[in-house]
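It would be a great kindness if you could assist me with a short task in structural biology. I am sending you one protein, given as its amino acid sequence and as whole-number tokens for its backbone shapes. I would ask you to consider whether the tokens describe a fold that such a sequence might reasonably adopt. The full record is reproduced below for your convenience.
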Amino acid sequence: MKLLVYGALNIDLVYSVEHIALPGETIRALSMQKNAGGKGANQAAAAAKAGIEVYMAGKIGADGEFLLELLKSCGVKTKNISLWDGQTGHALIQVDKNGQNSIIIHAGGNGEITLDEAKTVISNFGKGDIISLQNEIPLTENMITAAKKAGMKICFNPSPWDDNIQKLPLELVDLFVVNEIEGPSLANLQASAPLGETLDALCKRFPEKEIILTAGKNGAYYGCGQIREKGETIDLPAVDTTGAGDTFTGFFLAARVKNYPVKEALAFACKAASIAVSRKGAMEAIPAADEVFK
């Protein structure tokens, strides 16, 4: 069973600040780092570091070739990442003293993926393989349709959220991974809806589909039909929350590929995300398999 992650590859410019800048405010950064990122790249790195066969697909510019080497060092197969003559996507990230972040994304190569490229990549995978998609690249509808036609299982993380997500063929998705913002939006509820209500509404809207609702330090909730499970985080100091959700997703998928039951997979994924939050960076902060599966 192979995992294909088709998503964004970014260069993250991370600024450490006392507090997130307010509208109209100019503040000084305490430090700046250039890191690898992008939800797709982070999820691929996490799943590969967790010990499964992972392929990354996407598009970068010459300025992002270091991303290829870093992904390879994590164990990700990169032959489906193409080059173009423009810039790699990038993210401008503020991280405050409490580890909370604010992120601005520019698409770069992530926005230049073509339909022919997507169909060619997906044609190399088949029944029983998994595709993990997010909402940072175009052609999501086409990718979902092509992956289902190929017999793949589809994991969809609708982030960043926009209303166009509701127009996608969501009935073809097998596993939804949403946070406290995306979950109520997908369930057509108010943003303030309780987590339990949100999970129940999603399970009702998507019967027989797997739903994961991540809740930061409060762990993660799982629902499928009438089944409910909960995963708990571990108590570590928060340094940088960037990429925590991607680490969770990558490790959860890896744990399921390794045939761990849902409850154990949740526990491992929450542990991996907790470790990542205690370190600086996104991809660089992802723990190794032997730090989690023990």
